[in-house]
């Protein structure tokens, strides 16, 4: 019998009750005119994509995350809007990511490798995907206002397939949450 696997990733989830999140949601909706906007509940910054993971691997990842000496909490200014031709997405990113974010992503990538999970070799580029399936580079992207978030925890998420109005999609559900340090 084939072992059941689940699609997991570590991510930062913006505070959904903030005004900045409302601006982010509007921007994602505006970018949807070029492709398919990302569902508001799915807006996040991936820290480490774990891929298809067995229950045993997931338990190992959670145990390792419990022992992680995470960097301090940090704020993030999202100030760069762009398009990636290869993946056909419109994204929002920090021009200058804080060192704490880069350190956390590297720690989680190393944690995944130690748990036997393959990781991409290309450099980490923190971003929020706003729209997918964008056929070609938009001539003009929507105007970008100030969007800042403060993060004091990170989470482990599962990607669950869902069907809504006959369309297939995914829903991201948080499985665990860990605090960032105070120093």
From TrEMBL:
Enzyme Commission number: 3.1.4.58
Keywords, ordered alphabetically: Hydrolase
Statement: the UniProt record of this protein carries the keyword Hydrolase: yes
Looking at its record, which EC class is this enzyme?
Answer: hydrolase
Q: Which reaction does it catalyse?
A: a 3'-end 2',3'-cyclophospho-ribonucleotide-RNA + H2O = a 3'-end 2'-phospho-ribonucleotide-RNA + H(+)
Query: What is the annotated role of this protein in its UniProt record?
Result: Hydrolyzes RNA 2',3'-cyclic phosphodiester to an RNA 2'-phosphomonoester.
What family does this belong to? Belongs to the 2H phosphoesterase superfamily. ThpR family.
Q: What is this protein called?
A: RNA 2',3'-cyclic phosphodiesterase
- Gene it is expressed from: thpR
């Amino acid at each position: 019998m084939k072992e059941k696997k689940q699609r997991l990733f570590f991510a930062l989830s913006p505070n959904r009750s903030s005004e900045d999140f409302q601006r982010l949601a509007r921007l994602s909706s505006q970018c949807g005119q070029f492709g398919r906007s990302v569902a508001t509940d799915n807006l996040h910054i991936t820290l480490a994509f774990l891929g298809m993971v067995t229950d045993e691997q997931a338990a190992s990842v959670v145990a390792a995350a419990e022992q992680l000496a995470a960097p301090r909490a940090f704020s993030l200014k999202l100030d760069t809007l762009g398009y990636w031709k290869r993946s056909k997405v419109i994204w929002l990113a920090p021009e200058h990511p804080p060192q704490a974010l880069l350190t956390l992503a590297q720690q989680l990538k190393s944690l995944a490798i130690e748990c036997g999970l393959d990781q991409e070799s290309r450099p980490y580029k923190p971003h929020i995907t706003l729209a997918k399936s964008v056929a070609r580079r938009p001539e003009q992207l929507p105007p970008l206002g100030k969007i800042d978030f403060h993060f004091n925890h990170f989470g482990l998420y599962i990607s669950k397939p869902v069907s809504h109005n006959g369309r297939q999609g995914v829903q991201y559900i948080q499985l665990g949450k860990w605090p960032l340090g105070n120093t």
